Amino acid sequence: MEKELLIEWHQGRELVYSFLARIYQEGPARDLLAALAGEDILAELATRSQNEDLITGCRLMQAELEARRRDLEAYRQELQGDYNRLFVGPGHLEAPPWESVYRSKEHLLFGEETLAVREFYRSFGLESKKKNQEPDDHLGLEMEFMAWLCREAAASIQSGGDAGHFLAGQERFLKEHLEQWVPALTADIQRAARTDFFRGLALFTRGWLASDTVEVEMVLEERPKG
Amino acid sequence: MSTQGKSKGGTVLNPLISRRSFLKWSAIAGGSLALAGCSLNGGADEGGKPVANLTGASAGKELVIPTSCIHNCGGRCFLKAHVRDGIITHLSTDDDRTDSFEVPQVRACQRGRSQLKRLYHPDRLKYPMKRVGERGEGKFERISWDEALDTIALKMKEIKARYGNEAFYYVYATGTLGTTLYNCYAEFPNYGGPLQRLLNLFGGYLNYYGNYSAAQYYYVVPMMFGSMGGNSPKDLRHARLIVLWGHNPVETKLAGAGGAWYLQQAKKAGAKIIVIDPRYSDTVGSLADEWIPIRPGTDMALVSAIAYVLIEEGLYDQEFLNRYTVGFDEEHMPPGYPPQECYKNYILGKQDGQPKTPEWAEPITRIPANRIRQLAREMARIKPMTILQGWGMQRRAYGEQIVRGIPVLAAMTGNGGKPGSGPGLDMASPPVPMGVYPTGNNPVKATISFFTFTDAIIRGTEMGPQDGVVGVERLSSNIKFIWNYAGNALFNQHANIKRTHEILRDTSKVEFIVVHDLFMTPSARYADILLPDTHHFERNDITTSATAHIAGSSYAIFMNKVIDPPYECRNMLDICTELARRLGLEKEFTEGKNEEDWLREIVNTAKQKLPDFPDYETFKKMGIFKLSPDKEGSGIGFEDFYRDPENHPLGTPSGKIQIFDPRMYDKGNPKEIPAVPKYIEEWESPWSQEAQKYPLQAIGHHYKHRVHSTFDNVSWLEEAAPQVAFLNPVDAGARGIKDGDMVRIFNDRGEIIMPCRVTPRIMPGVIDIPEGGWFTPDAGGTDRRGCINTITSHRVNPLAFGNAQNTNQVQVEKA
């Protein structure tokens, strides 16, 4: 497979994972909404994808963004309210965005899965800056980790490496972690969100991970062995 | 450049993000710039090799750190946190030291062992917030700590300038109770508390007396006995007969060194145990030889009928009464008071023409007259006897009466002052030498009953002694500023939810409410500023068994900070230090000391009182220090008085137990505040007007699911003890209700819809809604969780100005 194509593929994915990392960590920031409303990137992504969830998700978000373009500040506040209700509080969280809450028997923060994710980051020389203050397995952090793996993979290819270590890491992290809980989380977001933006984001997230897993497997498959 | 490529195997890779749109995506992804400030660290090293300092031993090695449980259950139990890489993986308890009768293990109950379910709950408050919607609506917006603290300090100054310090109220709370430092219970200065100290330095705050648990008990026992007291749980093994009157330690106080364990030991030692309770409690099921179900609110009719039998059959101890009590008969009345007002005349009906016979009591109590006679004879003949009072029966309309009534039976049967022979009160824990964080003195002298704070919000300036106010003739201000720290009595645990809501939501009444807690409790919804607290595993503190009030052995626990606080959670010492700085009080507040400095002082004080108390470092490491049993005292309540009453009189007007109380007589309200303990029909009862519409009595027992409202959001405990209303098959059948059905429980004050458990474990005529469920209204305002205060009344007791939250008439139907 062409080197340039692979680099482009990794870099593009890094951008999507970074977008997801940012929105799940920070919520709907002004500049992010303005950029999404002002550009047609979601629509474009929808035309390039075959994944139904991803396509529907992009369209839901895009349609609401367009409809609310003129009162973007009011819309942002509404989205912030939705974001808080789903992920931040105060009060009962409709979609607690931590892996251990979904996967552990006790549905708590800082569970065995958190330690497993921490160990995963550690095996790539990474550590959460807020270790033990915030759980390592927040969806935003896991997305950021994927973005980092993409960036490192692209850099590796650029400097003549084959990025195998990072690509294998992506596949493992998708399979061992993201795939294990994000579908349940996004189902909760879809059920509880009050805006199409977050309902769409839930579909986007699920669709993106599904189609990305397929692509990662495919690229790994095609790599020269040994 | 191609955006599409074919692999060797023919598969197509078609990147979803084209290079053309990279720039646009960079704008929303923020690129590495937006990520630079966030979450993942390190890693820029080539080849992805692990960062050297992350691969050390810290990852795998388990640390075991001692701490404890800290709520308002009456217990203080030891917990050990097992920590790996800064995360608590599980808890264990006091399981590896000797376990003997003299020095038992202090093992935690199912609630304490569930602490991780609170600590690591995803719903914990994480950031400071300010209210953005209407008060009580639950809409909040995240703010910085600086904004939160600046706002609070500014409001404190404003409200002080406008209304004075009496406008500040630190509402009753017990979420973190009885520690030397972070205690939230403002009534007892000997417990500590940074907020109490800050408010005192700030000029003071409106005090309260009394508590939701036992307002009547705490008001009346000192009047009758001169002080609080009772026999130690350890002493129970000497009793031959134990009567648990409305007392249910197997569900409420079941931890290692608590009442339930000592009752088990007493049973093994051969004591007969009788339980009087409308519920077939776990105490009945596991300890009782006999269960006597009694209609709620009629305990005084039973007391009176037992007294009648003792008199009728000559089974009472006249000599004991003469020596230790005043007011039993005409010959032993306080001088200057009409002799005919004595207790014996009341029992024999000499004044009201109604002898208090078992036949009179039978239809009131629903206990057969012959059973009452038997019980009276057993109480007279089996010696020594200990009657232990529970508190549910005093949280009632005339709850003062039963507190005074039971000790009369103890005295009539010659009990009190000897091993196994109790004065008819609750158990009492032996003292433990300990220091305390100094809260200082409150310059405000005005004090209200804890239960009247909503009145003091709406009509404080009209309130004086007639409303239970002490310290001043009249309050100078309505309550304008409320601090609610680690508590849910601002709303959920206070009576009459609808009324409280109307009062609190009006921002012209209380102008500012600060809530500092772990969770978005129903009370926290009324915050103007909401602050995320640390769990007690996230700060250092010290507690003792003496603050537990049901522990049978004496010990102190160093509650270690096990882990760092998550997110932006901060503890009360930290918050008060920041506020003191903004209020110009920092120097006075801190005295240059931090958390550790204060705790060292507290341990030094303990060591001065008891030389073999361990030093700070040793204590911190060992976690629990158990006093040698010979330091615990005899465990006999009022021992000196019973041994030698002439030289060791009680602190009462007569120096003796006041069966007749001249202070009550002088109130001039004999119907509601009789001078001798009497049965008074309740203001809302099966015989009152309300019963036409609302025929069932609703009570709220203390459930093993929770400690009051703490632990309501813990799934393990919900599984073990689900929130259901208990109803007898007789009442359920008459209403077509089957086990597991949803039922509507209602009266004029509100409505609850919740699942019903149909069971003979509750007597007919009663529905039991375990107290402490978090009020969860649906769109129509109906509570869906089973918060009993939806249907309780705000009316106060005539003497104690306490809560009658167990006196309710309701109707129940299938929902």
From TrEMBL, chain A:
<keyword id="KW-0143">Chaperone</keyword>
<protein>
    <submittedName>
        <fullName>Tat proofreading chaperone DmsD</fullName>
    </submittedName>
</protein>
<dbReference type="InterPro" id="IPR020945">
    <property type="entry name" value="DMSO/NO3_reduct_chaperone"/>
</dbReference>
<dbReference type="InterPro" id="IPR050289">
    <property type="entry name" value="TorD/DmsD_chaperones"/>
</dbReference>
<dbReference type="InterPro" id="IPR036411">
    <property type="entry name" value="TorD-like_sf"/>
</dbReference>
<dbReference type="Pfam" id="PF02613">
    <property type="entry name" value="Nitrate_red_del"/>
</dbReference>
TrEMBL record, chain B:
<dbReference type="InterPro" id="IPR006963">
    <property type="entry name" value="Mopterin_OxRdtase_4Fe-4S_dom"/>
</dbReference>
<dbReference type="InterPro" id="IPR050612">
    <property type="entry name" value="Prok_Mopterin_Oxidored"/>
</dbReference>
<dbReference type="InterPro" id="IPR019546">
    <property type="entry name" value="TAT_signal_bac_arc"/>
</dbReference>
<dbReference type="GO" id="GO:0030151">
    <property type="term" value="F:molybdenum ion binding"/>
</dbReference>
<dbReference type="GO" id="GO:0009055">
    <property type="term" value="F:electron transfer activity"/>
</dbReference>
<dbReference type="InterPro" id="IPR011888">
    <property type="entry name" value="Anaer_DMSO_reductase"/>
</dbReference>
<protein>
    <submittedName>
        <fullName>Dimethyl sulfoxide reductase DmsA</fullName>
        <ecNumber>1.8.5.3</ecNumber>
    </submittedName>
</protein>
<dbReference type="GO" id="GO:0030288">
    <property type="term" value="C:outer membrane-bounded periplasmic space"/>
</dbReference>
<dbReference type="InterPro" id="IPR006311">
    <property type="entry name" value="TAT_signal"/>
</dbReference>
<dbReference type="GO" id="GO:0009061">
    <property type="term" value="P:anaerobic respiration"/>
</dbReference>
<dbReference type="InterPro" id="IPR006657">
    <property type="entry name" value="MoPterin_dinucl-bd_dom"/>
</dbReference>
<dbReference type="GO" id="GO:0051539">
    <property type="term" value="F:4 iron, 4 sulfur cluster binding"/>
</dbReference>
<dbReference type="Pfam" id="PF04879">
    <property type="entry name" value="Molybdop_Fe4S4"/>
</dbReference>
<dbReference type="InterPro" id="IPR009010">
    <property type="entry name" value="Asp_de-COase-like_dom_sf"/>
</dbReference>
<keyword id="KW-0560">Oxidoreductase</keyword>
<dbReference type="GO" id="GO:0009389">
    <property type="term" value="F:dimethyl sulfoxide reductase activity"/>
</dbReference>
<dbReference type="InterPro" id="IPR027467">
    <property type="entry name" value="MopterinOxRdtase_cofactor_BS"/>
</dbReference>
<keyword id="KW-0411">Iron-sulfur</keyword>
<keyword id="KW-0408">Iron</keyword>
<dbReference type="Pfam" id="PF00384">
    <property type="entry name" value="Molybdopterin"/>
</dbReference>
<comment type="similarity">
    <text>Belongs to the prokaryotic molybdopterin-containing oxidoreductase family.</text>
</comment>
<dbReference type="Pfam" id="PF01568">
    <property type="entry name" value="Molydop_binding"/>
</dbReference>
